[in-house]
Amino acid sequence: MMKLEIGTLVRVLVGVQLIDGTKIVKGDIGIVIENTLVAEEHYYTNFDYKILINDNELYVFEDEIEPYN
After folding, report:
1. How far is the C-alpha of 38 from the C-alpha of 1, rounded, in Å?
2. 13 dihedral zone (left: phi>0; alpha: psi -120 to 50; beta)
3. Which domain holds residue 27?
4. Do the bridges between strand 9-12 and strand 65-67 make them parallel or antiparallel, or are there none, so unpaired?
5. Label partner for 11 (CA 20 to 30 A): which of 19, 30, 64, 66?
6. Can you say whether the dihedral through the CA atoms of 27, 39, 18, 31 is positive or negative?
7. Cα-atom radius of gyration of the chain, to the nearest Å?
8. Other CB atoms closer than 10 Å to residue 20's CB: what's the count?
């Protein structure tokens, strides 16, 4: 898969419940806000993207999202 550009709309393929109780539901739409992550932001895992979804910034792997058409 080619790297998605910043500003690309994406659909989430997995559901997540955040610590504050916010739910990200499979099918929710977000936007890529970063596609080259700096190591200091994630020590143990190499995430592929940071997206903005439901007023939250979320780190994701490329297989957890797909471009929204």
Report:
1. 21
2. alpha
3. 9-67
4. antiparallel
5. 19
6. negative
7. 11
8. 6
Range 55-63 average pLDDT: 92
Q: In the structure encoding, which two tokens stand for residue 53, read together? A: 């979804």
Asked if residue 26 has pLDDT above 70, the reply is: yes
Quote the pTM value: 0.85
In a domain, 37, yes or no: yes
Above 80 in pLDDT, residue 11?
A: yes
Residue 12 structure tokens: 């989430």
Q: What is the mean pLDDT of residues 10-37?
A: 94
Report the alpha-carbon distance of residue 42 to residue 59 in Å, rounded: 9
Q: By percentage, how much of the chain surpasses pLDDT 70?
A: 88
Specify the residue for token string 């910034």.
57
Which residue type occupies 27?
G
Instruction: Output the pLDDT for position 41.
Output: 55
